[in-house]
Design a protein that fits this description.
Blueprint (H helix, E strand, L loop, with lengths): L1 H12 L10 H19 L4 H27 L5 H24 L1
């Protein structure tokens, strides 16, 4: 699901103004990559370490949600798209927390 979110948001970033390339686009890109990457890295570790990597991934997902709100306020994305992506992020967060609690 983290990869699906990243793919969808990356498509949105193509529409952002050029002047945001080293600002908001860069921040969003780092958050996007961090979400699935930390899960992948943590999956090769012990359960305790994996749980820590899930924490990092969750933190990145909350960062992403905040950055997308800023993008919507700047009119880089519309409210409907923001809500759609927020729902996916929230679903990812719930699934990750349930999985983390089972470790």
């Amino acid at each position: 699901m983290g990869i699906e979110i990243a793919d969808e948001v990356y498509r949105l970033l193509e529409q952002f103004p050029t002047e945001e390339k080293f600002g908001l686009v860069s921040q969003i890109s780092r958050s996007l990559v961090s979400i699935p990457s930390n899960i992948a890295e943590g999956s090769s570790r012990s359960d305790k370490a994996f749980s820590h990597f899930i924490d990092i991934s969750l933190g990145s997902s909350f960062e992403l949600a905040t950055q997308l709100i800023i993008a919507e306020k700047r009119k880089y994305i519309n409210k409907e798209k923001l809500i759609q992506i927020e729902e996916k992020i929230e679903s990812f967060q719930r699934m990750s927390m349930v999985f983390q609690n089972r470790l």
